[in-house]
Amino acid sequence: MSNGIKVLFGAVLGLLYVVFGLLQFVQAVFEAVSGVPMAGLAALLVPGNVFSGFVLIVVGAVLLTGAKKLSGGAEEGMPFIYVGILLSVGFGLVALCSMGAGALEAAAFPEEGAEPWSVVDTITPILYLAVIGVLGFLAWGKELFRGIRAA
């Protein structure tokens, strides 16, 4: 498969990660100042969370660095793309485990008067952007692990 597709994949996914990370920062600042979330960002399932925003920006920066190096013809950009994909999938799995733990806690220890647990409340950009990372992993996972084994 050509590197052009990997460059495009890394650039688009990296840009999405950076944009959603910045949106989470904006949402967190807006909530801290006004006390209410921004309606538009809440509709996109973007919670105000500084730490998740930072994670998203780091993953996006890794992917964008790989896309930039690879588009310039430097083969050392490929590991950045692969690591970005692995970070995407890894943090997505952590978010999925957190969602499952929240569901289990809500089922096992229901609190009186508390708002019921909802799947929609636990969906975050880390989770739904990881789906795109999984697609990249499925496309280039064998190539990635072949390179690790050779090293």
Provide an overview of this structure.
The chain is mostly helical. It contains six helices and no strands. It has one domain. The chain has helices at 3-34, 39-43, 50-71, 77-108, 119-122, 125-150. The longest helix is centred in the first third of the chain and has 32 residues, at 3-34. The model has no long low-confidence stretch (mean pLDDT 87).
* Overall residue-averaged pLDDT value: 87
- Total of domains: 1
| Major β-sheet annotation | none
Q: What gap, in angstroms, lies between the N and C termini?
A: 21 Å
Transmembrane segments: 7-30, 50-67, 79-103, 123-141
Keywords: Membrane, Transmembrane, Transmembrane helix
How are the SSEs placed, and which strands pair?
Blueprint: H1 3-34, H2 39-43, H3 50-71, H4 77-108, H5 119-122, H6 125-150
Helix pairs in contact: 1-3, 1-4, 1-6, 3-4, 4-6
Summarize the structure.
The chain crosses the membrane at residues 7-30, 50-67, 79-103, 123-141. With 151 residues, the chain is mostly helical. It has helices at 3-34, 39-43, 50-71, 77-108, 119-122, 125-150.
List keywords for this structure.
mainly alpha; 0% strand; 151 residues
